[in-house]
Amino acid sequence: YFIHYHLGVQPDSSLEIMKAGSVLRKAKSRIWRGHRHYRLMEDCKTIAYKSSWAMNSYSTFSVADVEAVREGHESEVFLSVADEFPPERCFTLVFRGRRGNLDLVADTAEEAQAWIQGMQTLIENLENMGESQKLDQWVSDLFLKADINKDGRISFKEVRRLLKLLNMDMNEDHASSLFKMADKTQTGLLESEEFVQFYKMLTQRMDVLELFQDYSSDGQTLSHCDLEEFLREEQLEGDRSHDYALELIKRYEPSDTGTVSHCLDGFLMYLTSADGAIFNPEDLRLFQDMTQPFSHYFISSSHNTYLLEDQLKGRSSIEAYIKALRRGCRCLEIDCWDGSNGEPVVYHGHTFTSKILFKDVIATVAKYAFKTSEYPVILSIENRCNAEQQKIMAQLLKDILGDMLLKTTVDGKVNVLPSPEVSMSYQLYNMDILNHRLINHTIYNNVHFCQTMIILYNIILTNESLPSDSKVSRHKSKRNLTKELSDLVIYCKNENFTNFEDSRINGKPYDISSFSESKARKIIKESAADFIQHNTRQITRVYPSGLRTDSSNFCPQDMWNVGCQMVALNFQTAGLEMDLNDGLFSQNNHCGYVLKPEILRHSEQHFNPDRPQDRKDYCPLILTIQVISGQQLPKVNNKEGSIVDPFVRVEIYGVPSDQAKQETSYIENNGLNPCWNETLEFVVHTPEVALVRFVVEDYDMATKNDFIGQFTLPFSCIQSGYRHIHLLSKDGTSICPSSLFVHINITEAALDLCEKYNFT
């Protein structure tokens, strides 16, 4: 069963060429290039490779670790050696997380195409797999991993070793009993089908079985009426429960006879699917109004986007722009400096960070700007170039972006910010390829440096003067902005912030203010309500402190609480802050634009995040979370015999009164199927801006707990009822099939409970 599973891949000539193997040249630089033998393993999910001198010793990587495959000279390495290898023989494997790219050169264009098409097929098959198929694939990997001598059978000794790999410390007598029950042939060895039975007994979901039996009329199946009752009573699906039950039976019932009799033997399949996930599938699609002014949206924004590491000696790379764009980022930063040979360069000035060419950055943005989202991209260009190189920048922007550059205002209006949707009306919908354009901002002369923002989908180019609180580049002489670059700017200009009264009287909708995190916090502390009013009219950008040389991040939630649209983070740095950013922008089709809640869009609301109880429509909610169990949690320590002691912490981020954390107890030596059955309860006073983060850690009494996985989502996107939470790694990538099983209940809070929290 497992040997022939093959991810559901059909016979393909490209895959056959990959299985036969190819000698490919690994390009690392102009100096170092080595030949290696690469081949696709029979399981169609593993690539094996070895150097020419390594005899029969192969190393491997998983197809699942590859995010994308690129053709031609689509990497920094290939761009640096473009004159040496024809692009039709070159391709790049892009890995998830922090692993670097693999740049390969085939002997022929035909061989390169076989690997490109074959990898694309394998990646596409993986992306199209449901949770149940992913679990099957995971079990397949277990069997192959346990079968050390590769004879298609595993012994009890191999099973005991497997249990350690599964993150579980099981009584040996119990494990032996399950092994003997699964060994139908009584050979002392488990074949593939017998291993499936052993795994099912090992991981039997008693929590789901009890729930199933509570609603099953006959204890064996769920009839249409049974499922409808479950959906209505537990999942709170309301009036749609009747029709929805029929849809689910059709979608997840694995048996034809079950479908006909309207039963659901695939109850677990439903619960582990997207329909049974905690994130409401309706909120994953593009569901928000996109016709409001830009100032009414949170915009996914990056700081020092060109960096892959720290801000002192880290590497600058076009890969950083690609990764940010693929992550849904819509505001990218480009720091431009005079380069040699008249070529403007991008890097973190006056540091040891490496340099990349401005033209390569713009070419990369032009290619990848709209692969994840079709909505505007904003290029925040800090211009420190001389007049000659500014002219070169302007020409490159026009030549590379071409029709992406919007040369007139939307609807002929300059005093009103356009909406994402209105800007899209300038695209050619009758074409197969949308005609994206560049919207530009007005630029000021006589500044220390100029910051230009370009929004793509339109692309918007803005230019900002040095923020008044910035310590960066104060020693540089003033440089005038050239007419060539200034002419590319249409919509917004940076206006040094004086105070909210001046902004209210004299400010224009197209004004943009930039604040460091410390300045923004000071304003929030002194005038949070006024800051919200300001952000209903104009755009605010907040960026990390210059002291964060390690590219660490600040918590963006405080800035979102007052409606700041562009909260720029260091996308290359994993952790809580990027979890919150990914969580907020995971809704609305991951388009990088999230409509701010009404209390942050309309001035008549008079909302104050420090006093949510003053709202006219104040209605706090109680969030009750029963943390039931976990499934297939990954090991965090590769030492032999190391098993996690997991616990779950639930964190609420929002207005100050909503900030809270609670956690379960820890379960000793069980990462395979820990059960907590513990209830956590929170009062959420402003659910519109709240985010909920689920964190699983490995408890350690003596040292810091180790991170296992997390998942973050907006409070407004939570589905009530019995739900699975599919965990993500620290880098925000899936760690399937790791999950949590919870029950969610959301109710209105009684006034006496609010008084308990000092709200009357």
Folded structure, characterized:
The structure is a single chain. Helices cover 29% and strands 23% of the residues. The protein is built from 23 helices and 30 strands. A hairpin with a 5-residue loop joins strand 1 (22-27) and strand 2 (33-40). Helix 1 packs across helix 3 and helix 6 packs across helix 7. The longest helix is centred in the last third of the chain and has 21 residues, at 517-537. The chain is globular, with a radius of gyration of 28 Å. The protein starts with 12 loop residues before the first helix and ends with a helix. Mean pLDDT is 85; it is low at 1-9, 425-458, 464-472 and 474-478.
Describe how the helices and strands are arranged:
Blueprint lengths: L12 H8 L1 E6 L5 E8 L5 E6 L7 E4 L3 E6 L4 H5 L9 E6 L6 E4 L3 H19 L3 H16 L7 E2 H10 L6 H11 L6 E2 L1 H11 L3 H10 L8 H10 L7 H12 L3 H5 L6 H5 L9 H4 L12 E6 L15 H9 L4 E7 L7 E2 L9 E2 H11 L8 E7 L3 H15 L18 H5 L13 E3 L9 E7 L2 E3 L21 H4 L6 E2 L5 H7 L4 E6 H21 L1 E5 L13 H5 L4 E4 L6 H10 L7 E3 L25 E11 L14 E8 L6 E4 L11 E10 L6 E8 L7 E9 L6 E8 L5 E15 L2 H6 L4
Parallel strand pairs: 10-21, 11-14, 14-17, 15-17, 18-19, 19-20, 20-21
Antiparallel strand pairs: 1-2, 1-7, 2-3, 3-4, 5-6, 6-7, 8-9, 10-22, 11-12, 12-13, 14-16, 15-16, 16-17, 23-26, 23-30, 24-25, 24-27, 27-28, 29-30
Membrane topology: Peripheral membrane protein
GO molecular function: calcium ion binding; phosphatidylinositol-4,5-bisphosphate phospholipase C activity
GO biological process, one term: lipid catabolic process
